[in-house]
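Human:
Care to share another protein and its fold?

Assistant:
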Amino acid sequence: MMRFLQRTGFAALVLTILFYLLFPLYYAIVTSMKSGPSLFAVDYLPRQFDAANYIAIFAEQPFALNILNSVIVSVAVVALSLFLGLTAAFVLGRYRFGGRRALLFAILSVSMFPQVAVLSGMFELVRGVGLYNQLSGLVLSYLIFTLPFTVWVLTAFIRELPREIEEAAILDGAGPLAMLTRIFMPMMWPAMVTTGLLAFIVAWNEFLFALTFTLTNDKRTVPVAIALITGGSEFEVPWGRIMAASVTVTVPLIVLVLIFQRRIVAGLTAGAVKG
């Protein structure tokens, strides 16, 4: 009887968490199918399947180009974060030198600053190097958020790899680059997928820097494009199109998480158990 109650309580808890997490997305999908006065009616079940809002967001503005901009920026951020994070983690995790711990804490402290605190400095940097209203300017600014946790996660993971593997590679004549690419990288895929996906989500959803460092529609990413969707008048808010755009840009993230879910779990739990 006690086991039955425990399983029932656990199932109820899981269902409650799933409802809390998935209901906003479900209601956004239902709302994206509405238009006109029906937007203000509370319907928990879809009464119609109208794709007019989805067609409108692509027909009335360069939303496809905005999605492409987000893909380019996010992929570039992931590639640079993994390259720089992996090389830095290899040095910080496998070599001993003075100031190593202080350097790690300095890297971590960068991610503790809120975006507003570094906005003016980043704006001057982006404008000074001639990257204002350029996708490369967004890539440069996003690294300030993605690189610190990438270095930390990969450093923690690489520390747990057996020393015997490294010693055997050294005896076989492998240098640092060959050791990193041929020995450590194949074993670090779970951690790399986890950090890469987190960096992708951060870059995909970032709004403040994208709004500040871009000026024209052809350079904007999807969060800014959604925020700037307007109706026929100044005071009209096109909730149907906003929900349709939100659903459109959320689906790719869900697909990525579902594809890499096993590697994500392995990466998050790596190093949790020793022995």
In short: The longest helix spans residues 63-94. Residues 10 and 16 are 10 Å apart (CA to CA).
